[in-house]
Amino acid sequence: MTLSLKTSLQGSSMKRYLELLHILVERNLKGRYRGSFLGVYWSLLNPLIMTGLYTAIFGATFASYFDNSTLNYILAAFTGLIVINFFSSATTQALSSVVGNGSLLNKVRLPMTIFPVSMVVANVFQFVMGPLPLLAIVTLFISKNPLNIIALIFPIIALSLVCTGVGFLVSALYVFFRDLPYFYELVCFVLWISSPVFYPVEIVPKAVQSFLLLNPLVPIIGSIRQISLTGDFPDLHLIGHSLFNGFILLGLGWICFRAWEKNFMDLL
Predict the structure, then answer these.
(1) Angle ∠(35,41,47) on CA atoms, nearest 5
(2) Which end of the chain is more exposed for a tag (fewer CB within 10 A), N or C?
């Protein structure tokens, strides 16, 4: 087989994959928001409501950790919430994506990896249409530097990589362990409570703070906050840490998914 023929086949395979991805993402979004008044903008309204709730309860107590500014606390809580909501929504939907399409896979030969990927991409679309414009406006208002808006792309890419890797892993495990969703709810809760979403990291005991770094969402939240809320030049260390975690989890999830994939059809 000549090199040009190999390239042509690879290009055709990638084109088919992207076409399938587009169809699945569109189907997912239409099914999710059929009859909905706000549609994808629920992804913005939810963190706004939760931010208001956290501010009413914790704002006065924790404002001292945010330059004695309740507004800074509001913005910090909002950035944390959009990250944890994205992660929870994308990975929970990815978890059941392969099993939920079992009947389709028994009829049509499709690349199985496309199902968890489509769930993450659908949530990326929601994020771009909902929270991201508001986050970009806040970033420009505080930093007054368009470069910081561009820099937001990197922690968002890291978040997408983390969700895709975890999505591969949990969707594969769910084929074998059908009670996984109950356990995964606990995992999401642990990740949420161990992320400085509504509380400042300074209140966490020093002995525990090092364990928070095992949470892949912590550097992502920290990076988005640093870019958006400080007005400083983007911290390359935080961005690098976020992307490193993302690629590690993506690689781990991909390897596990591909290793177990050959046994899926017997159980679907």
Answers:
(1) 125
(2) N
Q: What total number of domains does the chain contain?
A: 1
What does each C-alpha distance from 165 to 104, 120, 170, 257 come to in angstroms?
23, 10, 9, 9
| DSSP, residue by residue, the chain | --HHHHHHHHHHHHHHHHHHHHHHHHHHHHHHHTT-SSGGGHHHHHHHHHHHHHHHHHHHHHGGGGTT-HHHHHHHHHHHHHHHHHHHHHHHHHHTHHHHTHHHHTTS---TTHHHHHHHHHHHHHHHHTHHHHHHHHHHHHH--HHHHHHTHHHHHHHHHHHHHHHHHHHHHHHH-TTHHHHHHHHHHHHHHTS-SSS-GGGS-HHHHHHHTTSTHHHHHHHHHHHHHS-SPP-HHHHHHHHHHHHHHHHHHHHHHHHHGGGTTTT-
- Print the domain residue range for 235: 43-263
3-state secondary structure 61-98: HHHHHHCCCHHHHHHHHHHHHHHHHHHHHHHHHHHCHH
pLDDT in tens, 7-32: 443 457 788 888 888 888 888 888 77
In a domain, 22, yes or no: no
Q: What is the distance of C-alpha 260 from the center of its chain?
A: 24
The whole-number pLDDT of residue 35 equals: 66
Residue 7 lies in a domain: no
Rounded distance between C-alpha atoms, residue 37 and residue 197, angstroms: 28
Per the domain annotation, does 214 fall within a domain? yes
pTM, 2 dp: 0.90
